[in-house]
Design goal:
The structure is a homodimer. By secondary structure, chain A is α+β, with helices and mostly antiparallel strands. In chain A, helix 5 crosses helix 6 and helix 12 packs antiparallel against helix 13. The radius of gyration of chain A is 21 Å and the shape is globular.
């Protein structure tokens, strides 16, 4: 998706990919095989780049600080978000609201938190992703194992009404000390299934909440001196206030609808920001729902059901990533724009079900 | 642009390009260097394809009939549109309206047409493009030279009010003899400068005219058994009726706005059609104006003015093709969506002027 955005602007891209069948390597002509977890690979790759940026956070943080080209967002920003404890500290230091939390490295510390808060959530400070590394009210036996793997972040269960996300793009700060250009998207309502983002609803959040979320994101981007995208995931409490739950400094799953629903996609604005080019309008052109296409347990490949999925609704925008459909793996997404969010969601899910071979949605699938 | 569309659907593409710096070769990983004007290159290329299609019409028509894979649109359809005389005959045979015309191979025949019609237009039957090969009221000396180059199509000057274009996508006809699925876009008003399309206005054409144009395009696609896209350029006469001027069987300049202004782009629908996949909705999401970025005489390269152009309007969608900016060469386009077509046009031209280094639109261009 980054490559598609770069093609339109004529920005030449080179991708560092671990394997020749990685998504970017399948669709772009200039690919270096190597790992962002290797300082050596990063340094070699950086020699041929003007600017280096990232679409994931599995990066050697010491190595990235040693490359020769511009790195945007900065190694410091990458380091802050790579560790949930440092991220929580940075959010607090920036004056943004977050849930109560403690760091823990022992079973005893977690027992103490449980005694204070009742139900708790325990998160690996490093390496979690898509609900992995998050444990709700874990047993002492699980905790005893977790403390051997990573420092832990412990929080009370937050009684939230819904989860929101907001993305802001930010250019480098000008040399004269002025404010950097930012462009912030409308916040979305994100619906999780099994701890993983399943559905994103754009155009649902009321104006007051949207403004509050946008202020938090903009403030964090400035205080953390982010260049590129900052995605902020938030809890909205029952009575309205927002708490920052997660940060990411890259194009984010909760912004994939921007490709089809906004004037400028998150990918294009990320590229513009890291290339220090003027940012594009973020306006939502229509209410929209994005649903992730996730591998299921029966081994079916959604790519085999493209025809019935396209037939399921003519308005649906299908994006497949060229990934094999392992269970729980995100292998694509579907966005539907419609005046009504419920209609958009119904259509998007119908198409996703067709991609999983549902006979109801796709009686003709066997033609494939 | 075809590659960008293919990436989303996960349709694997391979491009035949004459040079390694051709636009498609710059952005896609699977490129064969060769010429569509060579029967041998087409045959070799076809051996590795399931379906072959085209984004231009400079194709060896004998060679294309000998390749081993599916060719969509068919070699017969490519041949019809490659020659303006056969195209006019096919339009008439399909029952669609066209201007009066005669074939001519001599100065005398053209003098006779001039005597009948007054002002005439003489067109090379083969090899014209973007206004090249079209001669308004040519002198006898010019005519004497033209008849040595190609059979000629001679027509009276048509007193048209405006030029329109309409694009229809069509899948292969089903084996059971039923009707093939078609999807037709809203007609656009096309504005020519020096015989070349300069500006496309989408959302301007009244409903009755739109329906008439769409009927003509659909009827032609069916009668010519087009698979893929058919672009129909039309004259609208002062009193309303439409005459077919040109046909193209590929993604067309008058449909570039569909990338940003329609639910499904012409490129995606072309791919869907030639892959026999269900077509996407063609609905125009907003009035839109597309302006071509054309190389000018001062040798400036629009790519050098990307930053001031992006700054010129945040809503503008800029598409650069990776082409060197020779005079009169189309090297990109800009689309702006807005509720008002005049506002969209003003913004789009402002961005195009910034890409040509206008100081008014882009006082900061020297920062580049």
């Amino acid at each position: 998706m980054m490559h598609q955005a770069a093609v339109s602007l004529g920005v030449p891209t080179r991708f560092l990919a671990e394997n020749s069948d990685d998504p970017a390597a399948q669709v772009s002509p200039d690919v270096t095989i190597g790992s962002a977890r290797s300082a050596n690979d990063l340094r070699n790759f950086g020699r041929s780049c003007a600017v280096m940026t990232f679409e994931h956070e599995v990066v050697d943080l010491d190595g990235i600080a040693t490359v020769d080209c511009l790195v945007r967002p900065s190694p410091a920003a990458l380091a802050v978000v790579a560790d949930k404890l440092s991220m929580r500290a940075a959010v607090a230091a920036a004056g943004a609201p977050g849930p109560p939390h403690v760091a823990a490295t022992s079973v005893e510390a977690i027992s103490a938190a449980r005694a204070d808060w009742g139900r708790i959530v325990v998160k690996l400070a490093r390496g979690g992703y898509d609900g992995r590394g998050v444990f709700i009210d874990p047993s002492d036996a699980v905790v005893a194992e977790l403390v051997t793997r990573s420092p832990l972040l412990v929080e009370p269960m937050v009684p939230f009404r819904r989860e929101l996300a907001v993305i802001v793009a930010r250019r480098p700060a000008p040399a004269d000390g002025g404010l950097a250009e930012v462009a912030v998207y409308d916040p979305v309502h994100t619906v999780q299934h099994d701890g993983q983002c399943a559905e994103v609803r754009a155009g649902e959040v009321d104006a007051a909440t949207a403004l509050a979320a946008q202020r938090i994101a903009t403030q964090l981007a400035e205080r953390l001196d982010i260049v590129g995208l900052l995605a902020v995931e938030l809890f909205q409490l029952d009575d309205g206030p927002l708490l920052v739950n997660e940060l990411a400094v890259r194009p984010h799953n909760t912004g994939h609808h921007t490709i089809d629903a906004c004037v400028t996609s998150q990918f294009e604005n990320h590229l513009r920001a890291v290339c220090d080019l003027p940012l594009g309008a973020t306006a939502l052109r229509s209410p929209a729902v994005m649903v992730n296409i996730v591998g299921n347990d029966n081994g079916d490949d959604p790519r085999d059901y493209l025809a019935p999925a396209l037939a399921a609704h003519r308005d649906a925008r299908i994006h497949l990533y060229g990934k094999h459909a392992r269970p729980q793996r995100k292998v694509g997404h579907v966005t539907v724009c419609a005046d009504s969010l419920d209609i958009a969601a119904e259509r998007a899910w119908q198409v996703v079900e067709a991609l999983h071979g549902s006979m109801d949605a796709a009686p003709n699938r066997r033609r494939q």
